[in-house]
Design a protein that fits this description.
Distance between the termini: 56 Å
Shape: elongated
Order of helices and strands: HHHHHHHHHHHEEHH
Oligomer: single chain
Helix content: over 70%
Strand order of the largest sheet: 1-2
Number of helices: 13
Structural class: mainly alpha
Number of strands: 2
Length: about 350
């Protein structure tokens, strides 16, 4: 297939935040090769759990959150998962598109693959998310209620830490996941990407894209399971003999909606690639039919047909075999089994907790 004609250059929101707050400079000063966004997130987790919550506990304004509800530790784990997921999606998106057979495309068609999501879109979505969190904290929850339950220090989290430290990771991961499962398959379809029928994996050169879709969905499912523990933690882990408070309808609906979005995303991406691969395969088969008609007299009458070029017929048969062996999905049976388990597990857990509760 030759050297890839594309170089992926994705401007990452979390890297820009680390640059603006000079965390990248600090990462350079510390020993080891530390990725600045990881250090950035770690700093805000320390502010949240190491300083704000500790101060509120010591002053008696509120019980330390991990002592009161230990299961909320999955919150930081979810943010760490998002941070690692961003790095994974970027590097593997680059590998996937660089492995596509793009040589036959013109420069404009290739250019659409050079980034997952435009940086301006990330900024707009981030701004909307920040406004939403502020509106919820100020209007819905109320600053007075926050001070009453978490102490004055709790305002630092509600008004600064979450917006500056956490939301960039959530927004970045969400948009990159959307880009991988919606934008990438659409770009492949619109750019009229060809298939590599000599692919030893028999996936037409789309194996790396299939792996990216599968593993990114695993990351989404892992995040959904962490949210499940955070939402139903009081039911799953009751401490001190207290009666757990079961989450309401809103939480259950939100979980089901998030699960549905995940299922729809993997279904959409796989079906879009299936249509592309099936169409290309059918196109090549039709071309072979035309070639066969050129070298066989009376091709539709097996008793009277006559081959006029045996060598060319052998070549056609060789190509036919390669095309026939190529799958029309970028996944193996094992991959489908793993995906199905990932699809069913979160909702099965949700239904089980609802039934027990």
């Amino acid at each position: 297939m030759g050297e890839s004609p594309i170089v992926v250059e994705e401007p990452l929101l979390v890297e820009r935040f680390a640059e603006v707050l000079r965390v990248d400079r600090l990462a350079e000063l510390l020993p080891g090769d530390i990725y600045p966004p990881y250090l950035y997130l770690a700093a805000f987790l320390v502010i949240d759990f190491g300083i704000v919550n500790t101060y509120s506990h010591v002053t008696g304004d509120a019980t330390y959150v991990l002592l009161d509800s230990p299961y909320v530790v999955v919150g930081p784990l979810g943010l760490l998962l998002a941070a690692v997921g961003i790095s994974y999606l970027f590097s593997n998106y680059a590998s996937a598109v660089e492995g596509l057979p793009l040589d036959s495309l013109d420069r404009d068609d290739i250019a659409v693959f050079e980034r997952i999501v435009p940086f301006r879109v990330k900024l707009v979505v981030y701004g909307i998310a920040v406004v939403g969190v502020y509106v919820n904290g100020i209007v819905n929850v109320g600053l007075g209620n926050i001070v009453a339950t978490e102490g004055a220090a709790g305002l630092i989290n509600w008004l600064f830490v979450w917006e500056v430290g956490y939301i960039p990771f959530v927004v970045e991961f969400g948009l990159m996941y959307f880009g991988v499962h919606v934008l990438l398959p659409r770009r492949i379809a619109n750019a009229d990407v060809t298939m590599f029928f000599y692919d030893p994996r028999n996936m037409g050169g789309f194996a790396s894209v299939g792996q990216l879709l599968k593993h990114s969905y695993y990351l989404y499912t892992a995040g959904l399971l962490l949210y499940f523990v955070l939402t139903y933690g009081s039911v799953l882990f009751s401490f001190g003999g207290t009666v757990p408070t079961k989450p309401g309808v809103v939480e259950a609906v939100f979980f089901s909606a998030a699960w549905t979005i995940g299922v729809a995303s993997i279904a959409y991406s796989m079906m879009t690639l299936h249509r592309v691969m099936a169409s290309k395969k059918e196109q090549r088969i039709n071309e072979l039919e035309a070639d066969i008609e050129d070298i066989i007299r009376n091709p539709y009458d097996i008793n009277k047909s006559e081959v006029t070029d045996e060598e060319r017929l052998k070549d056609i048969d060789r190509r036919r075999q390669e095309i026939s062996d190529t799958r029309v999905y970028p996944a193996t049976f094992t991959m489908w089994s793993q995906i199905i388990i990932s699809v069913l597990l979160p909702q099965a857990l949700n239904m089980a907790v609802q039934a027990v509760g």
